[in-house]
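Problem: given the chain below (193 residues), write out its structure.
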Amino acid sequence: MFETEPAAEEAFDRNADLPEDASVLIVDDDEPLRRRLGKAMEKRGFSVALAGGAREAITLANAAPPAFAVVDLRLDDGDGIQVVNAIHAKREDCRVVILTGYGNIATAVAAVKAGAIDYLSKPADADDVEKALLAPAGERPEPPENPMSADRVRWEHIQRVYELCDQNVSETARRLGMHRRTLQRILAKRAPR
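Solution.
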């Protein structure tokens, strides 16, 4: 019984930091990630709504504009920036965090121009998302405890280009400016940590 009390106090402290309206819309086409993040945010005291795509997210945002949103940049049926714009059309003060597995400067700039307060690379954990959502206005949250390694960022970029080329190794190698066999060796390995 003694061990459960600190956990209860910790949960209470986290909830005390939340504003009165703690509604959050989580938009991601990766269902397991969406559900895990949704459960984690509920445990932190947020009122969670989940959407698997841009159309569903826009419908939910129009019906009940959230105070917070976590939006994947690339969705199966649209673009995360469209979702951010739709949310801000209904509720300008919504604090939006963009998530993506394939970060680059151009998409980060687009996300900020659309009104996102932060831009996190996947896999982002719930603590990083919560810090970003609750960061005071005008301030950036602390950097993540365990950011992706340079090898992992490189691997993610290669995977993204590979997916954009419809898993065509030759085309991916040409676009990345590397030898086809080198690319095949990279793709055959597990993702670095």
